[in-house]
Structures are given as structure tokens and as C-alpha cells.
Amino acid sequence: MLNILIYGDSPDREVLIPMLERAEPISDCQKEYTFLTDSEQYYQAIRKADADLVIVSVGGEPGHRGIRLAKSLAPAIPRIWVSDNLDDCLESYRLGCTWFLMKPLEKEEKELKLALTRFMHPEYLYYRDDDDEATLPEGGLPI
After folding, report:
1. Would 36 be classed as within a structural domain?
2. Cα–Cα distance list, 70 to 34, 44, 67, 113 (Å)
3. For residue range 64-108, what is the model confidence (pLDDT) as tens digits?
4. Phi and psi (nearest 5°) for 80?
5. Residue 61 domain flag
6. What are phi and psi of 88, to 5 degrees?
7. Half-sphere exposure of 77 (CA within 13 A, CB side)
8. Radius of gyration, CA atoms only, the chain
9. Among the listed residues 4, 12, 98, the one whose alpha carbon sits nearest the alpha carbon of residue 58
10. Residue 101 belongs to what H/E stretch?
11. Is residue 119 part of a domain?
12. Domain total for the chain?
């Protein structure tokens, strides 16, 4: 069972959860979602540290706080930050996020797949080829 904690805006739920259901390599995994929009509930959920993956889908200062909180209370849990603010991309790198996705999420399905592949197989690095297509290293993933 893969426990995914999502902190964000309510409209993101309608887009993000179907994307996660389709996204390889976790499409075949059983998943349990906890979707929170309240910062106090998010704080309590992070303190429990029973999530396998945290997705913060809030931009600006509320997103910064959400990522910093996850990093400080549960540093071993991978974090994906989703925002409509490009400045948050650099900040996500500085805060040690596993990945950053730009809103609108509908355009980020390939990036989400890469983020989840990195989450499931952190020993592999990925690169972009000349056609700007995300590719796996030669030999693929271990079985």
C-alpha cells in the first residue's frame, strides 16, 4: 500500500488523483490518498510520518511552509511541489524536493511519471534526449 499525502487546493484533487492513478510506475500499486486543504491538519499528518510520498500543491509562501514543514518533521519522505509560480521551482531545489511540477497539471503528466519513477527507483538518473523526451537509462529499470 502506497500512502500519498496531498496538501493543496481542492480543484487540484480532481486532476492530481486521476494522474496518479494512471502514472507508471505506481499505476499497479494500491494507493491510499489523504487530501488536506487545512494547514493544521497537514501539520498533524506530517507529524505522524506515515506517508510514503508528500505532494504539496500550493504555491508561494504557503507552499514554502508546507515543504519546509515536511522536510523538518519527516525528512526521509520524498516531496513533490506543485505550483503555478516559476520562482518556486528554484526554491523547491533548494528545499530538497524530489520534483517540481508547474500548474496547470494537465500539461505535466510526463513530468509526474518521471517524478514517480525517481521516487520508486532513486538509484537511476534520467535525462532528456534531443527531442526533449524523457528517457530511461540504457537497460531500463531493475525487475
Report:
1. yes
2. 15, 11, 5, 22
3. 999 999 999 999 899 999 999 988 998 998 999 988 988 887 777
4. -115, 130
5. yes
6. -70, -20
7. 28
8. 15
9. 12
10. strand 99-102
11. no
12. 1
* Predicted model pTM: 0.79
Nearest C-alpha neighbor of 42 from the set 62, 59, 26: 62
- Residue 127: phi, psi to the nearest 5? -140, 170
Cell of 8: 493543496
Omega of the bond prior to 122 within 30 degrees of 0, cis?
Answer: no
Q: Determine the distance from the C-alpha atom of residue 50 to the mean position of all C-alpha atoms in its chain, rounded to a whole number.
A: 16
Task: Express each pLDDT in 40-49 by its tens digit.
Answer: 999 999 988 7
Specify whether the CB–CB gap between 117 and 141 falls below 8 A.
yes
Strands (DSSP E) along 9-76, which ranges?
31-36, 53-57
Q: Which one-letter amino acid corresponds to residue 52?
A: D
**Whether the Cβ atoms of residue 78 and residue 55 lie closer than 8 Å to each other:** no
Question: Mapping DSSP to helix (H, G, I), strand (E, B) and coil, where does residue 81 land?
Answer: strand
- For residue 80, what are the domain limits? 2-109
Residues with Cβ < 8 Å from 138, sequence gap 6 or more?
Answer: none
- Specify the CATH number for the domain of residue 75: 3.40.50.2300
